[in-house]
Design brief:
name from scop; two-stranded antiparallel ribbon; alpha+beta
């Protein structure tokens, strides 16, 4: 059975790209997801994307090859709820 992975991102206004605020697998990944849901933070489930992003260090910007996918995800979240509080699960 594959261990669940989770990555938390932050995209401050004016930043060139989102950066990684947390990354974990297994029970810690489930806890990241639970904390996000408890705080109305959007949760996107995308196994391929998390595989790529989780290879990076916490505190670093996400890899450039993920920018297009992430831009579409962030745009969708903003479209669903202008404050970015919508949920999208794939």
């Amino acid at each position: 059975m594959k261990k669940r992975k989770a990555v938390a991102l932050k995209y401050p206004e004016g930043a060139d790209a989102p950066f990684i605020t947390a990354s974990a697998q297994g029970n810690a990944a489930e806890r990241i997801k639970a904390i996000a849901e408890e705080n109305d933070v959007p949760v996107i489930i995308n196994d391929d994307l998390v595989q790529v992003i989780s290879l990076q260090e916490t505190g670093s910007c996400v890899p450039e090859e993920t920018w297009t996918v992430l831009a579409k995800i962030f745009a969708f979240i903003i479209q669903v709820d202008g404050r970015g509080n919508g949920f999208y699960k794939n």
